[in-house]
């Protein structure tokens, strides 16, 4: 995670951002601290990346790299405004034993468009991630990559429309995906939790599950109820300031998946 001490809406690179939007940075930091404390309270270990002045979106730590089985794949950001975040992630990862970290040739923004469900990597494309990066990630990780096409600009990263619940299933908002990708999701995850548009529009799918607890935006009340019915424990958090940048809990979180023992 990376504290939002330099967070502001200085440019617009997604449909949620209005340049010049008034941001209460102190409140953003406070909300982010609550997210961090929530993870720690659930028994997770949180590592911190130093925020860099001039990189207001660095709080969205999910985007700097993709780490699975202890292998880190460096991001190549789609927008120049965020490009300098990638070397900061790579330096941290290399200093902590995940190196060497090099970017892909095709653009991809780490866990923004990449997630792991059991053996598979699910990979978004359509807005930020180049299909070429999917092939590169499969080659570098040795895990099968399943490409999913995003079609609604409000859901510009896969993690705004889908998250893994555990090793066997996911929650997602079908309206974010192309027809073919919807059919892929129905085939792979017939028992998925299917979220409503209302919950998707508060970035309710930008959630983090540890297989039991699901940390999700407080406004996603319908989704929280669906999760409860399925035996999960919803843990709501309020990240209203960061929503102005188009992010929620998952965007603030990069998962460091270790090498298998
Ligand atoms: N303003 C950031 C961008 O558009 C938000 C990134 C949110 N991160 C995420 N994993 N969806 O790039």
From TrEMBL:
EC number: 3.5.3.18
Keyword terms, alphabetized: Hydrolase
Superkingdom, taxonomy of origin: Bacteria
GO molecular function, one term: dimethylargininase activity
Protein name: Dimethylargininase
